[in-house]
Amino acid sequence: MQLNSVVARVTERIRERSAETRTAYLRRVDEMAARDRGSDRLGCANVAHAFAALPSNEKLKVVVERAPNIGIVTAYNDMLSAHAPYARFPDILKDEARRLGVTAQVAGGVPAMCDGVTQGTPAMDLSLFSRDVIAMATAVSLSHDVFDAALMLGICDKIVPGLLIGALHFGHLPTVFVPGGPMTSGLSNSEKAKVRELAAQGQVGREELLEAEQKAYHSPGTCTFYGTANSNQMLMEAMGLHVPGAAFVNPGNELREELTREAVRTVVGIVKARRFTPIGHQVDERCIVNAMAALLATGGSTNHLIHWVAVARSAGIRIDWNDFSELSSVVPLLARVYPNGQADVNAFQAAGGPGFVIRELLDAGLMHEDVLTVREGGLREYTRWPGGAGGRLSWQDIGPSRDTSVVRPAGEPFSPTGGLKLLTGNLGRSVIKVSSVPQDRHVIEAPARIFDTQEALQKAFQSGELEQACRASDANGLVCVVRWQGPQANGMPELHKLTPPLAVLQGKGLRVALVTDGRMSGASGKVPAAIHVSPEAAAGGPLALLRDGDRVRLDAVEGRLQALVPHEEWMRREPARLQASQREENGVKLGRELFGAMRRNATEAEEGACTWL
């Protein structure tokens, strides 16, 4: 299938934009890959320290027999459901390595925090920056420099992007990512959302809400909605960094273990093959575009408009929101998974899953097929379904969609576009995810109501003030602006707690929208939300010029975010300032003091909110 002209144009534009930085990156990768093996290159004391804990026969393999040594970087902890299954993985991986005549060592661990636990608390201010901490921890783990390949064990929101950024800074190593899989389905996401909205209105109490939440989040594995964690897994498949089809197999079954063992076989195969493919060569501009297309086709998390900018930069590649927006104009929406539909990720997997989506995009010319992956068969291997047991994995064709309410072919999509829109105007640049926003809410024009914290918005809702203001306006609604939520202000927390109250107001027929320099991860769902507004208010961005009552137009059809204020008046305004007391509060409690340098040095959201540049 001939490549779509827009996909080709965006890819070429990225290639040209990145020519200098990509060339410099690949030069460093090739210089590192050309060195002697670690156990041959390092001093004797260094080597002795590196392998002191290995059994004697395995020391012999590494040093004398010169067998490959695999570094394992793990995000295991046993308080987070998604990462608890990783407790057993190192032993499984080491056992498979021994069967293959190679060695494997846990090179290090990286932190893994859960936005679901920290949501709405000061700890959420550490969440985005934890990605860069994870990248640095990955670098520390691999810095012992005695590894011929790497396996990355991580699955959730900041963990996979952080591991990937870290791995790309060791781009000379062949690397395979090893997922753990989603938990089995519990209380449906839509039923859980209903209880949350009832709780927001005070119609059910804490006991009923906690019961619903525990029925939804009930066992090991990732949460079953299609948020950042599960979007990560979709993108890993589209980039060819997984064993094919590994993303959404539940923890604890025989197939999960076989896929985990296959990760060792896969990475060892790259090391020993004539077709040596380190991750730095594999992740090129075509690979990045494939990830972007997969994100758009599945209505994935908007967090990746930040994370994948940072990932690309780690490989010397420059992408921006224009690239996402232009691809969104031709990549159709092929999946409806909560919050963009009723199905959870288990239903998505059962209907065809990542393999179905990748096949449809390849056949429609919307993904690059001529890319390197961790498998010799290339990206087509990722269009098949894994099965088998007892050491005998096999893959078969997925066939047609098993449920067209969940996944559809490219010729009959849910929407002809990816549902992601770049918004520009005198309020800056932002993005909106409209794949689950009702058509009649794609344009909202109403007075602005300014909030400096998410708690202030929640208080206004609970007191009834917000609803009264909506009904009193000539637009029968408000544009709620929550500013001082960007990387430099407080670390850019997700604002999930704002979804239930705004959804309640919209459900009452009021025309509400959210505008913020913070994040929503796509969890805004049916409420129109212009997020990631850049430049952020704390960096002198135009949200600091807005005043209560200013008329704001959010237009997801034309791609505009505009304060309808006369230009002369707008230019005369002095920006509001983040109050010293609030800035101070943003920097203390729950370890936030340690992240002051990250807040000061963070780039804008569209530049990846990077702290290492």
TrEMBL record:
List the molecular function annotations (GO) for this entry. Answer: 4 iron, 4 sulfur cluster binding; metal ion binding; phosphogluconate dehydratase activity
Name the InterPro entries for this protein: 6-phosphgluc_deHydtase, Dihydro-acid_dehy_C, DiOHA_6PGluconate_deHydtase_CS, ILV_EDD_C, ILV_EDD_N, IlvD/EDD_N
**Co-factor requirement:** [4Fe-4S] cluster
Source domain of life is Bacteria
According to the UniProt entry, what is the EC number of this protein?
A: 4.2.1.12
Record's catalysed reaction(s): 6-phospho-D-gluconate = 2-dehydro-3-deoxy-6-phospho-D-gluconate + H2O
CC annotations in GO: cytosol
Annotated Dihydroxy-acid/6-phosphogluconate dehydratase C-terminal domain ranges read: 406-609
Residues bound to [4Fe-4S] cluster are 156, 223
Per UniProt, the enzyme's principal EC class comes to: lyase
BP GO annotations: D-gluconate metabolic process; Entner-Doudoroff pathway through 6-phosphogluconate
Which Pfam family, just one, is annotated for this protein? ILV_EDD_C
Q: Which UniProt keywords apply?
A: 4Fe-4S, Carbohydrate metabolism, Gluconate utilization, Iron, Iron-sulfur, Lyase, Metal-binding
Q: Which residues form the Dihydroxy-acid/6-phosphogluconate dehydratase N-terminal domain?
A: 68-381
Decide whether keyword NAD is in the record: no
Cite the annotated pathway.
Carbohydrate metabolism; Entner-Doudoroff pathway
User: Its biological function?
Assistant: Catalyzes the dehydration of 6-phospho-D-gluconate to 2-dehydro-3-deoxy-6-phospho-D-gluconate.
Similarity remark: Belongs to the IlvD/Edd family.
- Protein name per Swiss-Prot or TrEMBL: Phosphogluconate dehydratase
Query: Which species does the entry assign this protein to?
Result: Ramlibacter henchirensis
